[in-house]
Write a structure and sequence with these properties.
The protein is an alpha+beta fold. The protein has 11 helices and 19 strands. The longest helix has 18 residues.
Amino acid sequence: MDSSYPIKNSDQVINSDQVSDSHPSFDSAKDPGLDSDLAISSETDPVTGFSIPASWLLLCHDPEAREKIKSGRWVILSSGLLCRRGLTTGTTAAAACKGAVLSLKGLVKSIEVATPVGIPVTLPVVADKGFCLAVKDGGDHKFDVTAGLEIAASALPAEETALVPGKGIGKIAGRGLCDEVGRPAISPAARKQIMTAISQALKQTDLSGARVELSVPRGEEIAGQTLNPRLGIVGGISILGSTGFVEPWNDHFIGDRALELKEARRVVATTGRMGLKMSRILFPDHKAVLIGSQLGRLDFGQDQESILCGLPALILKWAWPQLLEHTGYKTVAEMVEREPQHKNIARALHMAKEKLPKTRIVLLGRDGSILADVL
């Protein structure tokens, strides 16, 4: 492997309990190149920890804007426009499972569940006699193919509590994903959220335990429209959600993120929640901006100090879409885990640098370690 693009084991590992969403991403008073309004902002996004510039709030004419932002369900853009966050499959599944248990004692029409970031949300459900249907809310995410999808749960009293994955829940076929091969594609954060919801329902119903079967009736059909087949997840959708919320990826939101990237003198573009968290720790003098999978929109200025930071899969596949061809690997995560010195990883990093020659590229492990740091 080309030694100039090392995938390395790093001593700099930061555990999840060391990372706070409220950690300041930068100090505007120390950097005149950044938006000084952040220093006087009176609101913080409770989901991302982003300190909202006062000028954005002034441009918003909704008298309930502050309360909406505090709820976690709304994002404010630099234009003052409010966009609504959706809810993850994990949050929807938690509501379905809690509703199924509660309905063993009677009809249920709405459910409150806690999200992984600690913000409670209320979802409408249809639940009776141990069966519950919840519908996934996509918010203002126009690309969310799971929006409107029904997630179902059925519950029976039992001596011990068990979560049973049913029809439409994908199974892991590739290494390096959220669980071992053969296990259901339910991320640890989503599983914890679901089990917490079930536990709350058991206390409310005075039941000692319940067997709860979770299913997605159209899961296998919808999975074909997601990344799951390419990631190595078969037979259905994934139940995910590190925050419980889905960011409102629409034209307004994407355009606003692009503007944020342009305005800061020192900036780090991140592909996901892990990248956003770690960027605030690793690069406190840079403005961290979540861009998701919109890597093709990156257009840093010549005078910007720019960094691209995130998990390997999105970055390497964007740089070289054919990365996995003829390798025997189903996912980038599996390749990085089993063969971090693979020549294709080096080539993909080289191609990423060709696309962004003046940008530092940092690949992260799921534990917060730095896998590669290409200057």
